[in-house]
Structure formats: C-alpha cells, structure tokens
Amino acid sequence: MMLHCLLPGKLQSKKIIFEDVFSARDSATLEHLKELSSRHRVIEESINQSSFITEAIAREMSGGLTSHCLRDLQKLEQYLPLLENLIFHVDLVCGNQHVVRWISELKIRWSSALSSSSFFNLRGPKFFQIDNLRYELGMTLYLYAALLRERAVEILPTDLVQSATLFREAAGVFQHLANEVFPSLQSSQPVERPPEATPSICTVMSLICLAEAQAVTIRKAEEKGTTVGLLAKLHYGIIELLGEATAILYSSTRECKDISSSFLEFISSCKALHELRSLKYLAESLKIAEQLGVAIGVLRDSLINAKKEVPGEESWRSIFGKEIDAAVDMLRKFEHENEFVWHEKIPTGDELPRLQGNKIVKAIPYNPQRWERELSLKI
Q1: pLDDT tens track for 175-216
Q2: Per the database record, which ranges form the BRO1 domain (predicted)?
Q3: Distance of CA 1 to the CA centre of its chain
Q4: Among 203-207, 247-251, 318-322, 343-347, whose mean pLDDT is lowest?
C-alpha cells in the first residue's frame, strides 16, 4: 500500500474572456480567441465544480470517458496547444503597450491548493493574480501534471506499468515548469504568487512523482520475486528522493514559507514508511546471510524511529500501523530464534549497517504542443 495525497490538484481558476480583451484583425483570429475562452471555461467550471452538465452528458461529450480525471485531462490537452499558440504570437509584440494593457485586463487568477492561508479564508479560496500569459500557461500545466498524478493513483490497483508511466510523465511536466516556465515568470514581476508558481515547488512535486513511480516499480519487482537486498536499496532510493524534496522545501523558505502542514506531513510520512520497509528488507537479507543479531538490531532501531513518525491522517495511519505490526512480528520471530538457537550479540547505533539507495526511475520529458495557426492582432 502507498500513501496518497491528491491535494496538489485541487486548484481553482477565474473566468477569462480572450476576445473581449484582444482585438482581432480577422475572423480566423477572433474564432481562435473565442475557442480559447470556451476551452478555458469548461476547465474552470470543472475544477471549480460549477458545471451544470450531468454525468451522462459529460461522458458523451468526452467520447465515452467514464473517469472524471481523464475527462479533465482531455479538456486541458485541447486548451494547452491553443494557449501556446497565443503566447507565441503575443511574444512577437511583447513590448507593445497595448498588449501589456490587454494582458492585465484578462485578470488571470488562480487559487493555491498548497498554501496554508488558503485553508483559513472564510470567504473561500484566495486567488492570486499575475498579469502574464505564462502564469496562465504555468498554472494550467501544473494542473495537468497534478491530474496525471491523480490518474496514476486511480489506475494503480489495475495497471502497475501504466501507473508508473503516468507518474513519470507528471514528473516530466513538473520539471518543465521548474526549468522552462516559472523562472521567466519569477523575474518579470515581484508580486505575490501561489507556491505552485515557483520553480522550487515544481521541483519538489517532480521528486515526489519520481518517488511514487519508484514505489509502483517496487511493487512490480516484488511480484517478480526480486531479491530482498535489492528491494531494500530501491525503497531507500525513495527515501533519498523525498529527502531531496524536503531539503528544497526547508531551504527555499521565501517560496515555501506558506505550505500546508498536511502536504508537509505527507512527505515526511512517506519517507518514514519507506524507511521502515527498506530496513525490514535489509533485516531479511541479513538473516539470509546468517547475521541474525545485526538483523534484530536493524529492526529494533527501525521500529523506534517509525513509532515517532506515525501520521495523524487516518488512512495514512492505518497503512503505517500495518507496516509497524509486520515489523514487530518479524522482530519477535527473529528474537525468539536468536534466543534459542544462535545467541548472537545485538549491535546498536553506529554498529548498525547503513544503506545506499538505488534510484531506477527517470522523468519522461514533456514536449509542449502548439497548434500553428496564424493570428493577427490589432496593435
């Protein structure tokens, strides 16, 4: 079992009517702007849960898709190439004062799912406005990556291979945001922004997705009967990925000072869970190598640490509890065998072995798609 946190995908947006702001020179450009507005509206209504379309009609409009997550991904895939095309043409005249004013009149606003202040606002979520089309692109792509991750969780019980692929695709989109989209946005305007619109958080999300992809890959490896020594190293690879994510969160204090405590607990709980699993496999491999005393020391130490990290979230606590119970049971058997057969010394602290992780998953690079339509704007 894996811990799941779908909080990152709970974004909201406000209406944008492109044709009311941009002046088109011809009917083709006007149609493009209207289509952009229409595509944005269906995304906005879906994520804001303000759509009046019934489930049956929504399924029919999507070509028969039964998954709400898949339907939203489809809407985003139809919107993003149009938006990329508009940005391409606006960049050609980016210094024009008319264009600067038009973009500010769009009032591009998104909420945050990770900001702690968003959860204590009695008037609903706080919306952040940045007058830059790359903010709209970045937040839309962030939503797309978060929904890829959500879909990976959705199909996890039935298709491990596809689930791991989707986690890796999501990691690639987050990497693209961290490296290509949000750095330029950061330097343009010193305004308040949601944590999601920062390279640091996108890098953190990419590392989380890679850790989740590796966790799914481990489940496949367990089914194939992979050696316990390798499984221990693979779980420790997850700890290293999440350790990188944690280091970024605590070093980028300016960008990450307002992060939800639930999201931080998710990362620390995942790290602790995979540490316990890693050390259980290490103990098993040590027993096979006839080092039962060392195996007992590893298990004792792992349980002391794990019991300090039990999460508050009920579903996570349940998974954690089962893992602790399994480790306690293993320790009891090992201690019983050692007491009556081997009588080995039990090492502690620095005498215990230290693992080195093995990271075997990589992000699938994201390649932006642009519908190459000629646009003619009145400047």
Answers
A1: 999 999 999 887 656 678 999 999 999 999 999 999 999 999
A2: 5-379
A3: 18
A4: 247-251
With a CB cutoff of 8 Å and minimum separation 6, the contacts of 278 are 232, 233, 235, 236, 238, 239, 355
The separation between the first and the last C-alpha atoms of the chain, rounded to the nearest angstrom, is 57
Give CA–CA dist 243/252, Å, rounded: 14
pLDDT digits (tens, 9 = 90+) for 102-151: 999 999 999 999 988 765 566 788 999 999 999 999 999 999 999 999 99
Output the 3-class SS for the chain. Answer: CCCCCCHHHCCCECCCCHHHHCCECCHHHHHHHHHHHHHHHHHHHHHCCCCCCCHHHHHHHCCCCCCHHHHHHHHHHHHHHHHHHHHHHHHCCCCCHHHHHHHHHHCCEEECCCEHHHHHCCCCCCEEECCCHHHHHHHHHHHHHHHHHHHHHHHCCCCHHHHHHHHHHHHHHHHHHHHHHHHHHHHHCCCCCCHHHCHHHHHHHHHHHHHHHHHHHHHHHHHCCCCHHHHHHHHHHHHHHHHHHHHHHHHCHHHHCCECHHHHHHHHHHHHHHHHHHHHHHHHHHHHCCCHHHHHHHHHHHHHHHHHCCCCCHHHHHHHHHHHHHHHHHHHHHHHHHHHHHCCCCCCHHHCCCCCCCCCCCCCCCCCCCCCCCCCECC
Supply φ then ψ for residue 109, to 5 degrees: -130, 135
Q: Are 136 and 16 in contact (CB under 8 A)?
A: yes
Contact yes or no for 223/195 (Cβ under 8 A)? no
Q: Distance between CA atoms of 279 and 357, rounded to whole angstroms?
A: 12
Cα–Cα distance between 250 and 256 in angstroms, integer? 7
